[in-house]
Every structure is written in structure tokens, then in C-alpha cells.
Amino acid sequence: MKRRSALLLLTLTGLAGCADAEAVVPDAGASAMPSADLRWPLREPDLAAGFCFTLVQGFTPKQVIDRLGGKELERVKWAQLVGPGDGEAGAARRYFVGLTRFDDWTLIAEDAGDLGVTEEIVRPLSEGRRVLAYRSDATGRGRLLVIEDGEVLLDFDSGTPERWGGSQPGDFVPAMRTAGLLGGTDVTEPTGPALSFLADRTGVTLTREQLNERTYLLVTVPK
Hints:
This protein is an alpha+beta fold.
């Protein structure tokens, strides 16, 4: 985004700053929403170029930033984080991500980014804990990762549902069938089922309302 390019310039010149993540990120839990609308990103203009949601267990946003080697820029709301929806455009060397907290999980939110499914980044982040990520591209094709203690347990790509991997993919078959990721027509529109799968495994229901009410730390992370 143009605003992000400006923020990057401020960072490089040492003018950007941000308050401590612990002080500015609300620690509110997500309530169970069995009938929640989890297909909402498909109708969100700001996410038309794609998005990635990554949930990191047991780390605060500050700890995630430290382990990613990230740089805090400022505190923003959801509309500032994702609008106008061009994501990583023009940012060849850095990711721009937003971090917020849901109880024992930290969410890394990206529009048009892929940090959460870049294994060389998230494998180290998963040491001693579990990381789950879902990325949707501009065509609606989705990739779902479950990583624990540096090991990819599940790697599912909706574009090639017959070829999915990880070291323990069979362990997730019942949950994937329940969510709608396997079988039926939802395989070609995986966003809703994938977010349902994340909610089932983490207790975090990523509705638009949940994301819109939170404050995020806007962070740059080296690619």
C-alpha cells in the first residue's frame, strides 16, 4: 500500500515508533460462534487480492515480533490494516502484517501476503508450540498449514486436493471433513471451511466483527 511505503520510509530513517505490544493489544477471547459467517472474506473488497491468517499458540504479539525480527510501526484498526487492499505491492524486501491477541493465540493478519505459509519463516516460529495458517490468493485458491515444533503436520492446497501432505495428514481428516474441506462443493471455495477448521482447532473464530473490533500492531518483517 502507498501508506505502507511511507511507513517503511519512516522506519528506514528512524522516525517510526510504537508503544509496547503488551500495552496496546487487547487480550480478549473469541466467543464460540457455531453459526458464524466465515465466508465473509470472499465479499470483502479489501481482501480481493488475497489474505493470510496465521495463529501462533502461546506467544504474545511482542514475542512473535521478536522471533520474526520484526519492526513495530504503529497501532492501527482493521480498516487501516487492510485498506485499500493492495497488500504487499511494492514491498519486495519486507512483509507488512498486523498482530493482535486472542487469549492464548496471536493472530498475524496479512492482505495479499504469504508470510504465514512461508515455511522457512514459520517453522522456527513453531518451536515448542503449534502454528496454523490459511492463505487465500486472488483466485480463491487456499493453502492450509499446521506446523508443530518445526514439523509440518498438514499441508493442504485446495487447488490440488488429491495431493496433500505433511507428516501426519491423516490425523486431520475427520476435522477437515467436518469443516467441509474434503468432499462436497466447498473444496472449490475453501475459505469458509478453512476458517471453520481453524476455529475448531484453536477456539478462535475469525469473523469480520471479531477482526474489526480489535487493535493491531502494524509490523514490518524482513523477507
